[in-house]
Specification:
The chain has about 575 residues and is of the alpha+beta class. It has 17 helices and 22 strands. It has 5 domains: about 80 residues, Beta-Lactamase (2-Layer Sandwich); about 100 residues, PAS domain (Beta-Lactamase); about 60 residues; about 160 residues, Heat Shock Protein 90 (2-Layer Sandwich); about 120 residues, Rossmann fold (3-Layer(aba) Sandwich). Strands 9, 10, 11, 12, 13, 14 and 15 form a 7-stranded mixed β-sheet that branches. A 5-stranded antiparallel β-sheet has the order 5-4-8-7-6, with helices on both faces. Helix 9 packs across helix 10. Bound molecules: adenosine-5'-triphosphate and magnesium ion.
Length: about 575
């Protein structure tokens, strides 16, 4: 038969023997040891052994000893399980991916994970048992959260005590972050566990996207209105032109007509700006040297801007060309400079700067619709009044103005915004109330080098027709009638149609040759360009397109194809005649 000693687990034998020896030698007041013993079934069981020497002989050698052996296997197992589950919870707590904290009934934070240390900027031992959750909440949100918490601890439902909501978290340095919170009461206690997720970036991205979409929508609306207006204005202005021609130079009505005319021209201006914002303006982009444009504008700016404002330019050396419509670039610079002037009623400094920059993923991820790449930056900075947050949030919206009635239309910056979008760039603004404002526009850079500008030649020579036949295709009756009258008057033969189908039939059946097709770009039955193709195939006919705006084939993304003749609505009779003559003579 095996002795008791033999059944002890080999790893525990020495430990037990030493404890016993020490006690027998009188070194410890009691003998205590825990060790495993093999049971009959073959498994080891934990034994807690206790004993004490009851009497010793005159030499101190033990004579009699009493004690007990208790099977503690179950207790041991429970302890082990508890330790394991604590470890498990700690691991889960650490690795939730969110900042997690425990809060006791007195609002003290009792436990935090390392993500929370990171969020708060404080180390664990400075938080646990010391800090209150309210120390880390933006004051504006604290009251609401206290009410939720009281309700939650009182057992209220989701309505009064939502378990998920957003609030603003303030870290040790006072930085405010948007945080999503999820909180629950630990059952049977007044403690709560809360996990926090930083959603600042996401919220900002959402806001940016929302802004961009909002501007898109307003742009579409503006473009649509402007389109209809262009047709109306073409009719108004053209009819006025004709009326003027009919009246003798001494007519007292001429003054009134002038009044209507100048009002219509103002409306035309407004429409142009709306179109620019809606990115529906038809443009002719070419490679441009931005620095040259600024240099050429300097004299004009100096004239427009009061003496008490100093104008500084810092033009970057060797910066790449941009591809844009020069008139639009001028408009951007002018609008920004005029705003700067208006922001400095008591004088100051206007700085115009250019630089070549590379915008990386980082910048582009923060600006909706921007692609990483090489850009040319134009910045216009003033030392003026600056703007508050409220104003900043709306500056690019059409008709947003803080200027007195009649002073500003609020279309300046929306035009700039539209132009920058149409060029594939972007614009952003930085402003401090009372300090000044800086607008930064980014134009995509191009490889091609900029040629000297091709200025519009001043038209000369007669505007009259020489009996040529013009086929006018326009679905708006007012415009069609007007064009017909202008051309007939000037000595052209005119055939007018309201649509492409009619025009094609007319061409086929007519024995007379047609010299020029003057067609609207957008028509209900067929795009003007397709019509031109068909008509051209039946003879040598020149084409001139007219439109207020278009999303059509001759204009790709509102950019005119090379070699296409085009006239913008609304036009004056002079402009129309000049263009018609130009195309016929080309
Ligand atoms: N440089 C600036 N400094 C301070 N505020 C500015 C500046 N630029 C624009 N703003 C603010 O933005 C508003 C809108 O500007 P925007 O150019 O679109 O219209 P506006 O200048 O008011 O009118 P408009 O340009 O049509 O004559 C201005 O009324 C002004 O409040
Ligand atoms: Mg302005």
């Amino acid at each position: 038969m095996k002795s008791w000693e033999d059944l002890i687990h080999p790893d525990d034998k020495t430990r037990r023997a030493e404890a016993l020896r020490a006690h027998l030698a009188g070194k410890t007041p009691v003998y205590e040891a825990q060790f495993r013993v093999r049971a009959k079934s073959g498994e080891y069981r934990w034994i807690a052994s206790r004993g004490k020497v009851m009497s010793r002989d005159e030499n101190g050698a033990p004579v009699r000893m009493a004690g007990s052996n208790v099977d503690i296997t179950e207790r041991k197992r429970a302890e082990e399980e508890l330790r394991e589950s604590k470890e498990l919870y700690r691991t889960v707590f650490e690795n939730t991916g969110t900042a997690t904290i425990l809060i006791d009934e007195n609002d003290i934070i009792t436990m935090v994970n390392s993500k929370f240390e990171e969020y708060s900027g404080c180390s664990r031992d400075r938080i646990e048992g010391k800090m209150r959750w309210t120390d880390l909440v933006a004051p504006d949100d604290a009251e609401k959260m206290k009410a939720y918490r009281a309700a939650r601890l009182a057992g209220a439902g989701e309505e009064e005590a939502p378990s998920e909501y957003e609030f603003r978290f303030v870290n040790k340095d006072g930085n405010v972050r948007d945080v999503f919170l999820r909180v629950a009461v630990i059952p049977g206690t007044k403690s709560t566990v809360a996990s926090l997720l930083d959603i600042t970036e996401r919220k900002q991205a959402e806001k940016r996207l929302f802004e961009a979409q909002k501007m898109e929508a307003i742009g579409r609306l503006a473009g649509g209105i402007a389109h209809d207006f262009n047709n109306i204005l073409t009719a108004i202005i053209g009819n006025l032109d004709l009326l003027k021609l009919d009246l003798p130079a001494s007519s007292p009505h001429l003054k009134n007509i002038e009044g209507v005319h100048s009002a219509a021209m103002k409306a035309t201006d407004l429409t142009r700006q709306l179109l620019a914002f809606g990115r529906k303006q038809i443009i002719t982009p070419r490679p441009i040297d931005l620095n040259r444009v600024i240099i050429e504008m300097k004299t004009m700016l100096r004239r427009l801007i009061r003496e008490d404002i100093e104008i500084q330019t810092f033009l970057g050396r060797g910066i790449p060309s941009i591809r844009a419509d020069e008139a639009q670039v001028e408009q951007v610079i002018l609008n920004l400079a005029l705003n700067a002037r208006d922001a400095m009623p008591h004088g100051g400094r206007l700085t115009i700067e250019t630089a070549g920059v590379y915008l990386g993923e980082d910048y582009c991820s923060k600006h909706a619709y921007m692609k990483p790449g090489q850009y040319v930056m134009l910045s216009v900075t003033d030392t003026g009044a600056g703007m508050d947050q409220e104003t900043l949030a709306h500056v690019f919206e059409p008709f947003f103005t803080t200027k007195q009635l009649g002073r500003g239309t609020g279309l300046g910056l929306s035009t700039v915004y539209g132009i920058m979008k149409q060029t594939g760039g972007s614009i952003s603004v930085y402003s401090v109330k009372g300090e000044g404002t800086c607008f930064k526009a980014y134009f995509p850079a191009v490889e091609e080098s900029a040629n000297q500008p091709k200025r519009d030649e001043a038209p000369s020579g007669a505007l009259e027709g020489r009996g040529e036949t013009v086929l006018v295709v326009e679905d708006e009756q007012d415009v069609r009638d007007l064009v017909e009258r202008i051309l007939t008057r000037a000595g052209y033969k005119v055939k007018a149609c309201s649509g492409a189908g009619e025009a094609i039939t007319l061409c086929r059946e007519s024995s007379e040759s047609i010299d020029l097709l003057l067609s609207d770009v957008v028509m209900p039955d067929m795009p003007g360009s397709d019509l031109a193709e068909i008509i051209r195939s039946s003879g040598k006919i020149k084409t001139l397109f007219m439109s207020g705006y278009t999303e059509n084939v001759i204009v790709h993304r509102n950019i005119l194809d090379e070699g296409v003749n085009f006239i913008n609505k609304p036009f004056s009779s002079r402009e129309l005649l000049r263009k018609v003559r130009e195309v016929l003579d080309s």
